[in-house]
């Protein structure tokens, strides 16, 4: 698949990037995509929720009424969950929501996500660029030139670039990541995926295994 390479002014450079069909033109596997997105979102959960149970409530341990003869149910502790102020029965406890997926499935999910975006014409290849210093207005100018100012965009760098990253950090709709941070969720969550030229070789190398 041939895609025109653009510069930061949104103009074609005259060069074409060759996107591998093995990565950008496969038949998407929706279940693999579902599992990878589910794992990503599960890993974002802190799992620190906690409610006090009866053993953790302050209160008397005295038996509150005699066992028989009251005509009501047996009751041993005021800390029971059936009474006001008692502990929570079967309440949430801290836990880890993460689960494992094998590497081949995760690669398939990422290739499926990139293929979906390529089929939607939502992938842009941009020549490598840098800023002299971190300035948000410089990154906004790039977004305007690419007509991405009011769209969710994901910029994938070939190598970490602090000036570009810091220039984008204040912009809610745009995210700049390196190759190692590429995930199925981030690809699908963006309206437009912008791949810098230097990122293509590593993306195809990592996902073609």
UniProtKB/TrEMBL annotation:
Q: Which GO biological process categories is it annotated with?
A: translation
Q: Cite the residue spans of the region called Disordered.
A: 46-77
Entry GO CC:
ribonucleoprotein complex; ribosome
Any one GO MF annotation of this record: structural constituent of ribosome
Instruction: Show the Pfam families listed in the entry.
Output: Ribosomal_L4
Q: Which domain of life is it from?
A: Bacteria
Listed SUPFAM superfamilies: Ribosomal protein L4
Q: Where is the signal peptide?
A: none
* Keyword tags: Ribonucleoprotein, Ribosomal protein, RNA-binding, rRNA-binding
Role, per record:
One of the primary rRNA binding proteins, this protein initially binds near the 5'-end of the 23S rRNA. It is important during the early stages of 50S assembly. It makes multiple contacts with different domains of the 23S rRNA in the assembled 50S subunit and ribosome. Forms part of the polypeptide exit tunnel.
Q: Which family does it belong to?
A: Belongs to the universal ribosomal protein uL4 family.
Q: Which NCBIfam families match?
A: rplD_bact (TIGR03953)
What does the subunit comment say?
Part of the 50S ribosomal subunit.
PANTHER family cross-referenced by the UniProt entry: 50S RIBOSOMAL PROTEIN L4 (PTHR10746), LARGE RIBOSOMAL SUBUNIT PROTEIN UL4M (PTHR10746:SF6)
Name by which UniProt lists this protein = Large ribosomal subunit protein uL4
Where does this protein come from, organism-wise? Xanthomarina gelatinilytica
């Amino acid at each position: 698949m041939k895609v025109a390479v653009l510069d930061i002014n949104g103009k074609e450079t005259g060069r074409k990037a060759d996107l591998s069909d093995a990565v950008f033109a496969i038949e998407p596997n929706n279940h693999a995509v579902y599992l990878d997105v589910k794992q990503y979102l599960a890993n974002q959960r802190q799992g620190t929720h906690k409610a006090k149970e009866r053993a953790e409530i302050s209160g008397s341990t005295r038996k509150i009424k005699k066992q028989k003869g009251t005509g009501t149910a047996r009751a041993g502790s005021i800390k029971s969950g059936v009474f006001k102020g008692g502990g929570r029965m079967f309440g949430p406890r801290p836990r880890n929501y993460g689960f494992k997926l094998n590497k081949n499935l995760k690669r398939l999910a990422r290739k499926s996500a990139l293929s979906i975006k390529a089929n939607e014409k939502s992938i842009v290849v941009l020549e490598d660029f840098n800023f002299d210093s971190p300035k948000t207005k410089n990154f906004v100018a790039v977004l305007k030139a690419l007509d991405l100012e009011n769209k969710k965009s994901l910029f994938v760098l070939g190598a970490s670039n602090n000036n570009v990253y810091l220039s984008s950090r204040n912009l809610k709709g745009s995210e700049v990541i390196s190759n190692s941070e590429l995930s199925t969720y981030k690809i699908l969550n963006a309206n437009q995926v912008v791949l810098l030229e230097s990122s293509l070789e590593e993306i195809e190398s990592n996902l073609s295994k």
